[in-house]
From TrEMBL:
Organism: Gossypium mustelinum
GO biological process, one term: lipid metabolic process
Pfam families in alphabetical order: Seipin
Entry GO terms, CC: endoplasmic reticulum membrane
CDD domains (UniProt xref): Seipin_BSCL2_like (cd23995)
Protein name (database record): Seipin 1A
Keyword check for Transmembrane: yes
Alphabetically ordered keywords of this record: Endoplasmic reticulum, Lipid metabolism, Membrane, Signal, Transmembrane, Transmembrane helix
Location of this chain's protein in the cell: Endoplasmic reticulum membrane
């Protein structure tokens, strides 16, 4: 019996954890490097985030899908050298487009980007104090710029890719120098699924407990004779004892009925006898006046008999 209970507990734990895992969703987090094509007038890089249906220069081999209802935040990290060329360029334009499975643009953003300004004295002082780390390669003369390029809620039509384009400012053709570019995508769950995600293990414990109680009720209700034979045998013995106690009572009732029927038959027999006596008396009265005294005595005797019979009837009915 203990093995059965342990098996039910393990089974309930697996069922509870499985139900919570089916209900809960994990937030999406992806980080990939982007490579801009500088052979184009406006260098472009495409990051594929869907199932691979869009054929627009996606280089990402491992595809992933964003669940519907998630709020997606897309960030772009640019690592640029603090060169005179980049400082002379100043501002450039960064365009981002969200592309659906059909290849349509369902969202876009555009924003200016530039290096953080640092004056010449500060650059010289920084170079003086950081000379040894710079020579050893511990530090580098670079700047990292992180920009949120897109924010959207996944729905229908489903999103497939993000296309990022670098564009020079008006009146110039120069584009910034880049060491590397990295795109980061993370999603925010809806509040209900976020609650399930935060309390995932607590819900697993409670659901497993409820499933275990349900299994116990099912076991007791449907398989009582298989797992609890002693209770069933005790129930059978109790029913048998009740039947044994009931049989004498029913037998006594049957005996009473037999006695009553016997008394009724005796009463009917005596009544028939009285009727026969009365008929004989009437016949004797018609026979003649000579037998009047005899008939009177017979009437007295019949009256006495009637009284005796009445007394006997009262006694029988009282019994």
């Amino acid at each position: 019996m203990c093995m059965v209970l342990v098996f039910l507990m393990v089974l309930a734990a697996f069922v509870g954890i499985g139900l919570v895992q089916l209900w809960a969703e994990e937030p999406v987090f992806v980080r990939e490097k982007l490579f801009f094509d500088y052979t184009e007038v406006n260098p472009t890089a495409v990051f594929c985030a869907g199932g691979g249906g869009f054929d627009g220069g996606c280089y990402r081999k491992k595809q992933m899908g964003v669940p519907v209802g998630h709020t997606i935040h897309v960030y772009l990290l640019l690592v640029m050298p603090e060169s005179d060329f980049n400082r002379d360029i100043g501002v450039f334009q960064l365009n981002a487009e969200l592309i659906s499975i059909n290849g349509d643009v369902i969202g876009k953003s555009s924003q200016p980007v530039m290096l953080r300004f640092t004056s010449l004295p500060l650059r010289l002082a920084r170079t003086f104090f950081m000379a040894i780390p710079l020579l050893l390669g511990i530090s580098s003369e670079t700047q990292k710029v992180k920009i949120e390029i897109l924010r959207y809620k996944e729905g229908y039509p489903r999103s497939e890719a993000v296309r990022v384009t670098l564009a020079p400012r008006a009146g110039t053709l120069s584009l910034p120098q880049l060491y590397e570019a990295e795109i980061t995508m993370n999603s925010q769950l809806p509040w209900s699924k976020q609650l399930v995600h935060n309390w995932k293990w607590t819900l697993s414990v409670w659901i497993s407990l409820y499933v275990y109680i349900f299994f116990l009720i099912l076991l007791v209700g449907c398989f009582r004779q298989l797992f609890f034979p002693f209770t069933t045998s005790a129930g059978v013995e109790r029913d048998a004892s009740v039947e044994e106690l009931r049989e004498p009572v029913m037998g006594g009732r049957r005996n009473d009925r037999v006695e009553v029927s016997d008394l009724m038959s005796k009463w009917q027999h005596s009544r028939r006898k009285r009727k026969a006596i009365f008929l004989n008396k009437e016949v004797s009265e018609i026979a003649g006046s000579s037998a009047s005294s005899i008939s009177l005595t017979r009437e007295d005797k019949s009256a006495v008999i009637e009284e005796d019979v009445g007394d006997s009837e009262s006694v029988c009915l009282g019994g």
